[in-house]
Amino acid sequence: MSEIRILLVDDHPVVRAGLRAMLTDFEGFTVVAEAPEGAAAIKEIQRLQALGEPLDVVLMDLQMGAGMDGVTATRAIKGMPSAPPVLILTTYDTDADILAAVEAGASGYMLKDAPPEQIRAAVQQAAAGQTALAPEVAARLLGRIRNPQPVLSPREVQLLELLATGMSNKAMSKQLFISEATVKTHLVHIYDKLGVDNRTAAIAIATQRRIIRTAG
Amino acid sequence: MSEIRILLVDDHPVVRAGLRAMLTDFEGFTVVAEAPEGAAAIKEIQRLQALGEPLDVVLMDLQMGAGMDGVTATRAIKGMPSAPPVLILTTYDTDADILAAVEAGASGYMLKDAPPEQIRAAVQQAAAGQTALAPEVAARLLGRIRNPQPVLSPREVQLLELLATGMSNKAMSKQLFISEATVKTHLVHIYDKLGVDNRTAAIAIATQRRIIRTAG
DNA sequence: CCCACAGTCAACCGTTTGGTTGATACGGCG
DNA sequence: CGCCGTATCAACCAAACGGTTGACTGTGGG
């Protein structure tokens, strides 16, 4: 069988070195290029295609410190002609990450703390055009399908964002030019949809689900 | 010059492989042992000392999925006779992490996304008994010294962390085996030190100041 | 030895928030 | 057209939270 040609995309040199060592230790895997973020990855793919040396699989991290993030990059790659399979390999398994990656066209989703041979198996499957999901991720996706999460309205997200800055109901009502009563109504709906019963828990869940993002 | 003998402590096989590859690529570095978490690391150190093959430096991650966390392990190691230098190598640079690690006796604090030669230099410095801080980390510590923020006690930080998960005062009191009255006292002190007057604002400020880290 | 501080707890009181019910208005969709 | 979801507001009550005062303990530094 021929070699599997791989592009690594991760902003951490340590992780790239680890994946390279882990994969090239075994027959049949070649890391032909690396990129620290999405835009550079796309350039690499185009460069390799121009050379007539196409890729068999892209190993993509989602969290990039700077530059194009993994989901955007995946979407861009899958929009290219003769796009290679993209296997997501990331640290976290939050709902938003997984869904966004799958929507963007990823062929699989692995967690970085997976045992090496599981990662290698996933790469092989992705290169063969198959789908590869880590067990934890698969379970989470199934759970999501079985009981779908309610969608917050734009106004509710807006409230949530103000909430996360620590504002009181009265402060939010002034900011949004609505009455406190309306603020409370919105909050009750938010708690309902997120399955919580107070504002701090709402912020915690919304942050986890990446509905809002906190100051960095 | 003689070789620098290293123990790697990280729960991710990928990261361990990356560090091993990155360090052993260069003359003078030998990875003599690895451990996925703190307790195993301590056992390794004892084993090597019993063999008369002491370590020159321990490379320690702080976030461990399971087992003994990095700060606890560092404290335990620095309590041993003829303890090796411990160099912290982690993903985040929150105040809480840095302070706790330094208090626990770490000789340095590097971020995983640092360039390879910076990491190697830090390992060399630590092995030589010197201190090594990543520029970002050093800047943060200096900023902390220049305009000192009121320091939260460990207990207060602990409360803050529970707070950020959305727990009520009653829930926190049960979790920490203290009364609600005590929880309220702590919270008042926290609000005071952070200059806020409610729990959501406290979480917002604490997140901004990187006193706590939210789910990610 | 004494002081300061962290941590613990209690009682009190006013304010804020959570939860409910009900009402109005507007837009889109079958 | 009627229904549903979104957004708006009001009134009400119970529960949680915020703020204060005061008190006790243990630990560590001057």
What is the topology?
The structure is a homodimer of 216-residue chains.
Chain A lengths: L3 E6 L3 H12 L4 E7 L2 H13 L6 E4 L9 H9 L7 E5 L4 H10 L3 E4 L4 H12 L4 E2 L1 H12 L7 H11 L4 H8 L3 H15 L4 H10 L8
Parallel strand pairs in A: 1-2, 1-3, 3-4, 4-5, 5-6
Helix pairs in contact in A: 2-3, 3-4, 7-9, 8-9, 9-10
The structure holds a DNA duplex (30 and 30 nucleotides).
Walk me through this protein's architecture.
The structure is a homodimer of 216-residue chains. Helices cover 52% and strands 13% of the residues of chain A. Chain A is α/β, with parallel strands linked by helices. Chain A folds into two domains: 4-146, Response regulator (Rossmann fold, 3-Layer(aba) Sandwich), CATH 3.40.50; 154-208, Orthogonal Bundle (Arc Repressor Mutant, subunit A). In chain A, α2 (38-50) packs parallel to α3 and α7 packs across α9 (180-194). Chain A binds chain B through residues 11-22, 63, 65, 92, 94, 112-113, 115-116, 119, 163-168, 196, 198-205, 207-208, 214-215, and chain B through 11-22, 65, 112-113, 115-116, 119, 163-168, 196, 198-205, 207-208, 214-216. Chain A binds a DNA duplex (30 and 30 nucleotides) through residues 153-156, 168-170, 178-182, 184-189, 191, 197-199.
Major beta sheet, strand line-up of chain A: 2-1-3-4-5-6
Poorly predicted parts of chain A: none
Give the oligomer, counting copies of the same chain as homo and different chains as hetero. homodimer
Major sheet characteristics of chain A: 6 strands, parallel
| C-alpha end-to-end distance of chain A | 47 Å
- CATH topology of the largest domain in chain A, which one? Rossmann fold
Q: What is the number of independent domains of chain A? A: 2
The CATH fourth-level homologous superfamily of the largest domain in chain A: Response regulator
Contiguous helical run count of chain A: 10
Name the average pLDDT of chain A.
Answer: 90
Element string of chain A (H = helix, E = strand): EHEHEHEHEHEHHHHH
The total beta strand count of chain A reads 6
Strand content of chain A: 5-15%
* Outline of chain A: elongated
Structural class of chain A: alpha/beta
Instruction: Please state the CA-atom Rg of chain A, rounded to the nearest Å.
Output: 21 Å
Give the proportion of residues in helices of chain A: 40-55%
Assigned CATH architecture of the largest domain in chain A? 3-Layer(aba) Sandwich
Q: What is the C-level CATH assignment of the largest domain in chain A? A: Alpha Beta
